[in-house]
């Protein structure tokens, strides 16, 4: 998907959901995507600060690698959807602040941060997602075609699916679901044709 479409919310969500149409795979992503983001933020919060901030902000705000990532996510999400994006941005900022506080407390108490637990959660959640694609979706994730979705925007799209349950942007939801049904049907038909061709080759 070209860069000009990176901030077209409807196109982005349609593309994402076309790779996440199986109910079990969708549930696994719903359960795993935000823990992946939280654990990533936590791990980045363990990096050394690159500049000092006002003492009054410690330990809530630290100029570490996580801060850079959080700023990118916040701006990206709000541009994509001012309302759902702002909610997602608030959650991300909360996770960043929480991670900094937990790390500071752990270092003060034990001399090291609990990064191993965060890494374990991160890796396990990724593995579960790949299982969801391979076993249930039976379609590889579009990591190369849409790297930004795997790394940046997937949490927002999962949040949108939750908000849809409460009636958020129903018209857009209907258009997306209709197009996703077409995309998935096309993928399955083309896959069946390839399998048939391979058998007769």
TrEMBL record:
GO CC field: endoplasmic reticulum; membrane
A biological process from GO: sphingoid catabolic process
Residues annotated as transmembrane: 27-45, 57-78, 84-103, 115-135, 147-166
InterPro entries per UniProt: Mpo1-like
Record's keyword terms, sorted: Membrane, Transmembrane, Transmembrane helix
Taxonomic lineage: Eukaryota, Sar, Stramenopiles, Oomycota, Saprolegniomycetes
The protein's name in its UniProt record: DUF962 domain-containing protein
Species assigned in the record: Aphanomyces astaci
Domain of life: Eukaryota
One Pfam family it belongs to: Mpo1-like
């Amino acid at each position: 998907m070209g860069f000009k479409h990176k901030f077209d919310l409807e196109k982005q969500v349609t593309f994402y959901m076309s790779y996440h149409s199986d109910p079990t795979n969708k549930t696994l992503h719903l359960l795993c995507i935000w823990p992946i983001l939280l654990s990533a933020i936590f791990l980045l919060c363990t990096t050394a600060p690159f500049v000092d901030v006002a003492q009054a902000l410690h330990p809530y705000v630290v100029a570490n690698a996580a801060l850079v990532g959080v700023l990118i996510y916040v701006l990206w999400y709000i541009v994509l959807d001012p309302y759902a994006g702002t909610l997602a941005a608030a959650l991300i900022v909360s996770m960043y602040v929480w991670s900094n506080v937990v790390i500071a407390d752990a270092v003060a108490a034990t001399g090291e941060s609990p990064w191993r637990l965060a890494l374990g959660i991160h890796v396990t959640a990724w593995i579960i997602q790949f299982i969801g694609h391979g076993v249930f979706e039976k379609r590889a994730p579009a990591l190369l075609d849409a790297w930004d979705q795997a790394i940046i925007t997937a949490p927002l799209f999962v949040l949108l699916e939750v908000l849809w349950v409460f009636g958020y942007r129903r018209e857009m939801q209907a258009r997306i679901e209709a197009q996703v049904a077409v995309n998935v049907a096309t993928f399955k038909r083309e896959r069946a044709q390839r399998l048939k061709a391979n058998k007769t080759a």
